[in-house]
Amino acid sequence: MTGKPESYDVVVVGGGVNGTGIAMDAAGRGLRVLLCEMNDLASATSSRSSKLIHGGLRYLEHYEFRLVRQALAEREALLANAPHIMWPMRFRLPHQPHLRPAWMIRAGLFLYDHLAKRELLPGSRSITFTPDDPLKPEITRGFEYSDGWVDDARLVVLTARKAEQLGARIQTRTRCVRAERGSDHWQVTLLDTRTGDSRVVRTRALVNAAGPWVSSLFDSTLDQKAPRMIRMVKGSHIVVPRLNRDDEAYILQNEDERIVFVIPYEDHFSLVGTTDVDYEGNPSEATISGEETRYLLDIVNHYFRHQLTPEDVVWSYSGVRPLMDDEEESAQKASRDYSFEVDAPGGKTPLLSVFGGKLTTFRKLAEAATDRLCQYFPEARGHWTRDAVLPGGDFQSQPRLQEALCQHYPWLPGLLASRLVRSYGTDSYLLLGDSARLDDLGRHFLGNLYEREVDYLVRHEWAGNADDVLWRRTKQGLYASAEQIGELESWLKTRTSQAPEKACASGQQPV
């Protein structure tokens, strides 16, 4: 390593929703930003959630009114800024009188409706289930309220793209292996995990947004004691053939006071989750246990007429949530709130570490974190992300956009058009380009995934392997055989070996 090191205002370690959110906010305030992620964007917790933009109805029982109010207020801002990957959803709660009395549920829903202003989402109401509903016939009464759905991994990728458009440099598969503090800068050693090459950059501030690794990064990289520890809680989900009748979701109560969601998923499936289990070990290696699978199936089978067995599970995933360790006995009661620790001894260059958090409040977390950083950057601009439309989100209605897309590309199959709209929004035109017929999309890999889309994901969205494409950028892995995955992987190895590094494609130059 020779020559003058690249110099930044802020280096962010961690490419999950919190790290990309901070990188986007800081870049939009005029700061020079580099984000490094040791794997793929959203490769851990941020792609393994229940995929909801919600206030957290059950958090009211734990008296987390501030967190719920903030999350409720954020729902509509996020829905407006990314209408392609987020949309409103109605949730149905079948009433089980022995678990929670009706008055308690009504009181909770009243608070849920009124803790924050609503403009897009309708309020709650009592409902009566009919024989057409998929629930067992003895379940006749319930409640309905509004929240939102989000493609969590695409939220992270699009946030990173927005940061890049604002001048940030995004580097995936790049591990921060050493960070040493000087009087006016950090010297950060970065390792390219694909090539084994390392380099040193300088930064005026360092952000530890490593999610489940936030505490361990202090020992492994910063050579200092973590100011606080996190509690790692594993949440597991299963995907099964479609249980939901229409576009409604279900929220199911259980005897252990937990709730489980059954959510419409990718046209033909239902997503069921989540569990709450304390976890130790490498967060990257978390998998669902047989006990967790049985737990989720038992709850679903208690409510739904169609009975499921383990053989009905099409796919499963587990994520490790880095929750603040507030010494609660049960994992389900651990707070989903967040906090920061800023370390700047003797006025030296700061280290900001993020502990906890939840998907819905990522923008507010990023805003608050960047506010703290900007105490060291008086030249930085002020708040701006409340109305920050993510790439592809500059439209009002998915149906109207799909209609316009199909008019422009009349040969486009309906299911593919629908998926492109809810993944890329108006960037679907960038992806399809001058294609004049289906054959122009190139090789058909599987499902409705074609070469042109995969090439777009490599060039514009940092995709490097089959998992990046099939499970985080798209959900086409649900339709893939082992042979098809192998063929896609082989194609990607050839393609990425020829492609320039994505981080340099924007033309952004470090100072």
Automatic annotation (TrEMBL):
<dbReference type="InterPro" id="IPR038299">
    <property type="entry name" value="DAO_C_sf"/>
</dbReference>
<comment type="similarity">
    <text>Belongs to the FAD-dependent glycerol-3-phosphate dehydrogenase family.</text>
</comment>
<keyword id="KW-0274">FAD</keyword>
<dbReference type="InterPro" id="IPR006076">
    <property type="entry name" value="FAD-dep_OxRdtase"/>
</dbReference>
<dbReference type="Pfam" id="PF16901">
    <property type="entry name" value="DAO_C"/>
</dbReference>
<dbReference type="InterPro" id="IPR036188">
    <property type="entry name" value="FAD/NAD-bd_sf"/>
</dbReference>
<feature type="domain" description="Alpha-glycerophosphate oxidase C-terminal">
    <location>
        <begin position="385"/>
        <end position="479"/>
    </location>
</feature>
<dbReference type="InterPro" id="IPR000447">
    <property type="entry name" value="G3P_DH_FAD-dep"/>
</dbReference>
<protein>
    <recommendedName>
        <fullName>Glycerol-3-phosphate dehydrogenase</fullName>
        <ecNumber>1.1.5.3</ecNumber>
    </recommendedName>
</protein>
<dbReference type="GO" id="GO:0004368">
    <property type="term" value="F:glycerol-3-phosphate dehydrogenase (quinone) activity"/>
</dbReference>
<keyword id="KW-0560">Oxidoreductase</keyword>
<feature type="domain" description="FAD dependent oxidoreductase">
    <location>
        <begin position="9"/>
        <end position="333"/>
    </location>
</feature>
<dbReference type="InterPro" id="IPR031656">
    <property type="entry name" value="DAO_C"/>
</dbReference>
<dbReference type="GO" id="GO:0046168">
    <property type="term" value="P:glycerol-3-phosphate catabolic process"/>
</dbReference>
<dbReference type="GO" id="GO:0009331">
    <property type="term" value="C:glycerol-3-phosphate dehydrogenase (FAD) complex"/>
</dbReference>
<dbReference type="Pfam" id="PF01266">
    <property type="entry name" value="DAO"/>
</dbReference>
<keyword id="KW-0285">Flavoprotein</keyword>
